[in-house]
Fold Putative glutamate--cysteine ligase 2.
Amino acid sequence: MNVSPPSYDPSVAVPTLGVEEEFFLVDPHTRFLVPAGPAVAERAAQEVGELVTKEFALCQVEGRTPPCRSAGELRGELERVRGALVAAARAEGAELCASGTAVMQEAGPVQVADHPRYQAGRAQYRSMLDDFAISALHVHVHLPDRELAVLTANHLRPWLPLLIALSANSPFDRGRDTGYASWRSVIRSRFPCLGPPPYAASWREHERLAVTIADTEAMLDAATPFWDLRPNPRLPTLEVRAMDVLHDLDDTVAVAVLLRALTVTAASRARRGDPGPVWEGEVLRAACWRAARDGWTGEGFDPVTGRYRPLAALAEESLTLLRPALEEAGDLDEVAALFARLSDRGDGAVRQRAWAAGGAGPQEVVDQLVLATARGSGPRGEVSGP
């Protein structure tokens, strides 16, 4: 990557950030998904309120953090919410599992919650939703100016393949090894309105593109696009949705603060009139596909040149690019440690395959994911396993 001098404005305050994590609920004996989401969300809400919610599929539940200023604060909130969900799941006879796809699942379509929006999605997309049970990590960075958020997103678009590669955590689906590092990304890619957002020169153009796509019925609602990167429709944030949920809480924190540094650096460039690289949507979709296939084990798409290079080299150069923003927020060590872990042990897909090879196949993968997810929830999560 040809790294130009960072366009970073230290006078701009470090923005807050927040995280959403989607989890599967599994039976501790069969390891299959269980439709316990509504009951688990209701029980966990007694402890953490609106920081937990139901999901599209009945076998899932979501945890979210309030806005946080530091990596330490974010880690504490994630532990608190995960802890409430782990305890609630066990009270309902289930376990919390952080994987981008269901490692094991009974045959048949996914059971969908009885919500008007979800039922509208079922009517619109039909059988495309039969196996649409996937769990993501969403990161929000405070950026209330909609115009600036769109211009910042233009800079972040070519980073999406790298984010998919470093968060890959879904090699298995319904008991089989798919050959991909992020099968969740492949499932999402079948939808015409998911994936990298189109390049937009302004907020008005962003809205026009969403309306045009919604008119084709490829998108449920122009006001709520589900692109991998978007100004959030309800919150004053720029939201990144490309990543698989991660079972390692330290990885989750590091990805979140990495995205904050990317956003701060990109927003500074956008403020100074830099329009960002105009990569075609087809190029980025292809790069995202390759990242989903290979994860951190392959070569990565260089956000500047478009060439494919070793991911370790891209990671090192990204630290140079983002160092001012990372140091200002006190996050440099978090991100450097993430890249070191990826080099040492691989991504989540590598770890899932190692568990399968060293134990009882997919059942062992589920057991290890459950234990790893619970370890990220503080002391309560470590009292028992499947």
In short: Residues 249-271 form the longest helix (23 residues).
